[in-house]
Amino acid sequence: DAEITQSPRHKITETGRQVTLACHQTWNHNNMFWYRQDLGHGLRLIHYSYGVQDTNKGEVSDGYSVSRSNTEDLPLTLESAASSQTSVYFCASSEGTSYGYTFGSGTRLTVV
Amino acid sequence: DQQVKQNSPSLSVQEGRISILNCDYTNSMFDYFLWYKKYPAEGPTFLISISSIKDKNEDGRFTVFLNKSAKHLSLHIVPSQPGDSAVYFCAATSGSGNTGKLIFGQGTTLQVKP
After folding, report:
1. Which of A106, B21, B69, B73 is the 20 to 30 Å CA partner of B107?
2. Which residues, numbered 24 to 43 in chain B, qualify as contacts with chain A under a Cβ-Cβ cut-off of 8 Å?
3. Least confident piece of the model among A2-6, A20-24, B73-77, B99-103
4. Do residue A106 and residue B45 have CB atoms under 8 angstroms apart?
5. Contact A77, A65 (CB under 8 A)
6. Which of B110, B103, B108, B114 is CA-nearest to residue B34?
7. Contact A42 B6 (CB under 8 A)
8. Contacts of A97 in chain B (CB under 8 A)
9. Contacts of B106 in chain A (CB under 8 A)
10. Cα–Cα separations (whole angstroms), residue A57 to A60, A62, B2, B20, B111
11. pLDDT band at residue A99 under the 50/70/90 scheme
12. Cross-strand bridge partners of residue B20
């Protein structure tokens, strides 16, 4: 069965370190997205991609980057982790939104 | 600026009764709206959607109503069941759903008491 997986599920890192969160989907979807979930803010869009070599900034992109070298993967990199980036991160994929996104199970990141 | 707002952080209802979750939006370009349900330690899952050409869409116990003039939508769950207890997110997009980029609200935590 097709799926979307995120790794790791939990991560603790120190301030200033570079961190990469993985997202892998086998749906063959062109569209992939990264969101962060924070209390009182809901889900906020970080970066998104409509296909290989395409990346776009979302509403809270500062301090994050992504790259899309193939259809299956959209890794999210925190260049220099900050405590404000402590959050739960969700990756999603879709082919248009008529049927909604398929979300991964999330990565809980703690920056200490 | 929050383009999609869910002003009620939480809602508690009795099993069997109706649950009504509300959502407001500010961007008049939005033309497709979705509701997602999220359990703890899981990713959100798609529940129901509605296009701006409609004012109602129904799927089993779930009905979404859209009032374009008020820029307001609501999700009705009838009858509510304890398994419906979860966080519900409203989301919106433009381009008739083809752009793929969703803007989410803050979420409403629904508790259905047995």
Report:
1. B69
2. 32, 34, 36, 41-43
3. B99-103
4. no
5. yes
6. B103
7. yes
8. 32, 34, 49, 93, 97-100, 102
9. 40-42
10. 8, 9, 17, 34, 35
11. low
12. B76
| Predicted confidence (pLDDT) per residue in B43-88, tens digit | 999 999 999 999 999 999 999 999 999 999 999 999 999 999 999 9
The answer to whether B103 contacts chain A (CB < 8 Å) is yes
Cross-strand partners of A23? A6
Q: Tell me which residue in A35, A42, A97 faces B34 most closely, judged by beta carbons.
A: A97
Return the pLDDT at A25. 97
* The two structure tokens encoding residue B59: 């799927």
pLDDT of residue B96: 62
Among chain B residues, CA nearest to A88: B41
Q: What per-residue confidence (pLDDT) applies to B75?
A: 98
Number of H helices and E strands in chain A, helices first, is 0, 11
What radius of gyration do chain A's Cα atoms show? 13
